[in-house]
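To the structural biology subgroup,

Please find below the input and predicted structure for ABC transporter ATP-binding protein, which we are adding to the shared reference set this quarter. The sequence is reproduced verbatim from the submission form. If anyone notices a discrepancy with their own records, reply to this email rather than editing the shared folder directly, so we keep one authoritative version.
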Amino acid sequence: MITFEGVTKRYADGTVAVDDLSLQVPTGSITVFVGPSGCGKTTSLRMINRMIDPTSGRILLDEQDIRQIDPPTLRRGIGYVIQQAGLFPHRKIVDNIATVPYLLGWDRKKARGRAMELMERVGLDPKMAGRYPFQLSGGQQQRVGVARALAADPPVLLMDEPFSAVDPVVRASLQEELLRLQGELHKTIVFVTHDIDEAIKLGDTVAVLRVGGKLAQFADPPTLLTE
Ligand code: ADP
Ligand code: ADP
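Predicted structure (tokenized):
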């Protein structure tokens, strides 16, 4: 479980990106942060893996304040997927997926074996393994991004608009794949999007944020739709 306790982030120029946010992301569920551009979604996500620290308030992972966990250890348990998959252009797909296992010092064969297994998991043809990112479609690259984030089997997955840059048909299939995958893996997922339909489709719980970083609603989709 991830707990935000009165979290505020004020940037150096005075912008309040996140304003007194308190909520809980239950273990094994998908919580979606949704709202217009500038409402503090990315800032909230980056505070979970300590790319940014709150100005005040605190974030707990299970019972522990994340500031008590050193960032490399924290990040080992957190997969991160961004909008443009952010793949290394000069590395083969298999090696992109195995990035974290290599960093963790797994031997090459084991790391690549894990990568091949993940390619299957996320619905990528193993024939893609030896290709380079530019040889893949946008949707395929996002699948690689998801596989890479899952490589070290982190319990937490942060996803920042992962499907926003692909066309609607591909987006719908990526959403289905994520739900299928989550049915097997039961990760604790924080998913950020500006698309309310996507939030309702994917979220076990949805946090609606307003510009200024205030939480407007926090509910499951059926409740949200009737409010
Ligand atoms: P979202 O992901 O919902 O689009 P962000 O978290 O990126 O929102 O940004 C929230 C607010 O904080 C916006 O007003 C944005 O301009 C501002 N902001 C983001 N990063 C910085 C920064 N490094 N310095 C100053 N303001 C920032
Ligand atoms: P290297 O970088 O060591 O020269 P290769 O070019 O032989 O490696 O391939 C890189 C990795 O990608 C291999 O470990 C292999 O598992 C995988 N791979 C490459 N092409 C395919 C393919 N067509 N089908 C399955 N796996 C492949």
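Summary notes: The two ends are 26 Å apart (CA to CA). The first helix runs from residue 41 to 48.

Regards,
Lab coordination
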